[in-house]
């Protein structure tokens, strides 16, 4: 779907691999670029009923006037732009970011048998977002399902964060299976930015080196070690404080900001 901006999904089929952290990092860098005038409005879309991404943007699950669930629960009539009815403003620390937030009730959409539910997010964003806008989507860490497919149908690009351990390896493999099914059916234009090493500690790691080599050997150019996200304690600090990583000035924060920026640029977002 053209004309609805760049929409980047963060997806793995394993939890604990930095999926929501990646979504927040990409949003922070996109917001900085928006403030600098290189991109338009930044949108965050949370499809994970746990609401981790929403909470970091300052919107608590259980206390929302409108949500992603409301959009996906609408009767399927094919209208564009309906996301405008449920989008919320992020907290002051994230000013300028607009959010389709998650709440626990969003989990009910997994068993919602309504025809066309998987297309509602894409239609909802089309007519709301312009070509210069950027959207970041946080998908739940599960195999397929209607929420995952909704996110992948709405996305133009998808990034797969993978910790260099067995969870990261399995999560990447299974995510690719689901992504390829969506590419073959609902969204043939969906682009895979790559499998990105996530929360990578400094120094040598025998297991990490072995997993990295396995991913490179198995997936070739899809494995993007040039987009590695380092592990730094400041990331957990900003998550707790619910502020963008770009608001911090330490060397570690700068390293993370640059890492998220490289990924965003690889997804085609203007610098």
Descriptive notes:
It is a single chain. The model has no long low-confidence stretch (mean pLDDT 94). This protein has a single domain, classed as P-loop containing nucleotide triphosphate hydrolases (Rossmann fold, 3-Layer(aba) Sandwich), CATH 3.40.50. The protein is globular, with a radius of gyration of 17 Å. Strands 3-4-2-5-1-6-7 form a seven-stranded mixed sheet, with helices on both faces. With 271 residues, the chain is of the alpha/beta class. It is built from nine helices and seven strands.
Layout: helices, strands, pairs:
Layout: E1 6-10, H1 19-35, E2 42-46, H2 52-56, H3 68-72, E3 88-89, E4 97-100, H4 120-125, E5 134-138, H5 145-154, E6 157-162, H6 166-184, E7 191-197, H7 206-219, H8 233-241, H9 251-266
Parallel strand pairs: 1-5, 1-6, 2-4, 2-5, 6-7
Antiparallel strand pairs: 3-4
Organism: Streptomyces salyersiae
Protein name: ParA family protein
Domain AAA: 8-192
